[in-house]
Amino acid sequence: MWFWWFMLFCDLLVPVLMILGGWMMWKHPPKKINMAIGYRTARSTKNIDTWRFAQDYCGHLWWKIGWTMLLPSLLVHLPFYGRSEGAVGTLGGILCSIQCIVMIGSIFPTERALKKTFTREGVRR
């Protein structure tokens, strides 16, 4: 039973961290361009305008995706309560992999929005 609770906790980490991280990037973004915290790509670090836009866009996206993934991640675990550790572990691994793919996939709409809003040099269109 303890393993089921452990895997539930692990599988809720990604959505919860996306909610919290997204809220921080969206509402309290880093003030200066840096290479430690925030959404950092070549396009987002062109200038302060692209930096702020990327933090706002990606933060809002993560916040929405995190909330969207939270309930299904919880509901998927319920039928596996009391099952073998192998079944729960497999479910947890698959679910965590899907969540990570979704989180990494958020790069594509953010980069598309940056490309649509700014020129290659970082000037707003």
Polypeptide structure, described:
The chain is an all-alpha fold and 125 residues long. Helix content is 70%, strand content 0%. The protein starts with a helix and ends in an 8-residue tail after the last helix.
**What value does the average pLDDT take?**
94
Q: What percentage of the residues does DSSP assign to strands (E)?
A: under 5%
Please bin the fraction of helical residues: over 70%
Shape: elongated
Concise synopsis of the structure shown:
The chain has 125 residues and is mainly alpha-helical.
Topology of this structure?
Layout: H1 2-27, H2 48-77, H3 85-105, H4 107-117
Helix pairs in contact: 1-2, 1-3, 2-3, 2-4
Short descriptors:
single chain, 70% helix, 125 residues
